[in-house]
Design brief:
Helices cover 0% and strands 44% of the residues. By secondary structure, the protein is mostly beta strands. It has a single domain, classed as Thrombin, subunit H.
Length: 86
Amino acid sequence: MRLLGQVEVILRDKAVVRIADVSSIPMISSSVYNERREYIGRLIDVIGPVSKPYAVVSIKREGYKPSIGESFYYTYKPSRRKRSFR
């Protein structure tokens, strides 16, 4: 798991996270976890200027409310494409 960044803004079912390492921007649909390695949701968008990007995380965990300043982590596993049987 790699550090995504810290929560800056909390919306209803989304959180805006300032990306900690600008040199390695995470892929869209990466899985996002909290400090206790509990699954939180998916990264759905990267917004803002190139020098200070933000990640928008869709929170999928029922009843979970992140706090401002909380650190989020991410992993990315590419989806396996299904083979066509023609």
